[in-house]
Amino acid sequence: MDWMKKISTDKMLVGLVSLIAVGMSFIYLGKGPADPEQSVQTKSALTAPANPSTKIGVLEKELESKLQTNILMMEGVGRVQVSVNFLTGLKNEYVRNNNVTKRTNKETDKVGGTRETTEITENNQVVMPSGSSQPVIAMEDRPEIGGVLVIAEGARDPKVREGIHTAVQTLLNIPSARITVVPMGGTS
Q1: Residue 54 CB neighbour total at 10 angstroms
Q2: How many CB atoms within 10 Å of residue 152?
Q3: What is the pLDDT of residue 39?
Q4: Is the distance from CB of 152 to CB of 181 less than 8 angstroms?
């Protein structure tokens, strides 16, 4: 009798494991897109650089171009590809019109007691030029750089790689850990 219970328990366990395996395969197969083109589009959207039509995208491209121009002038570098990533967006400080009004009231009651109240009103408005929907900017800070990747043909040489690394660190005034310099792969 005990052997029958053991067999039925083993069969139940095998059935349960099989059921779980079939369920997991349906889940796994159900996650993939039905259209292979959709998979390619999703992958390219994830790896695409920042939109160059936005201010941040324009700043990234401008900075990449300037870095690439400087690095190309260095001896032994060869072809270069530079990518810059920002941690933050643009920071703007707007011109504000600050008005502070202070009004003090003294009241005397019939018994001779006095009461003094002070009312302070602050008005802190952003200055908008007439006919414009954009406020006046007092200061605009560039975003904080998150990281720089430099891919260069000459980076196989440790001296060239160190020179590129030092140049990027000096130009951008960022910590060394945010800069990666690697050799370019493939054929020329």
Answers
A1: 12
A2: 26
A3: 39
A4: yes
The DSSP element (H or E) to which 136 belongs, if any, is none
> What's the pLDDT at 30?
59
- Rounded to the nearest 10°, the torsion over CA 180, 183, 184, 185 is -120
Say which DSSP state 178 is in.
G
| DSSP structure class, residue 113 | -
Q: Return the pLDDT at 36.
A: 45
188, 153 contact by CB (below 8 A): yes
pLDDT value of residue 35: 47
Cα–Cα nearest to 81, from 188, 184, 187, 186: 184
Contacts of 129 (CB under 8 A, 6+ apart): 136
The Cα–Cα gap between 52 and 50 comes to: 6
Residue 97 phi/psi, 5-degree rounding, is: -100, 105
Q: What's the whole-model pTM score? A: 0.51
Q: Which residues, given as ranges, of the chain have pLDDT below 70? A: 1-10, 12-17, 19, 22-26, 28-53, 186-188
- Return the ∠ at Cα 80 (arms to 79 and 85), rounded to 5°: 170
Contact call for residues 150 and 179 (beta carbons, < 8 A): yes
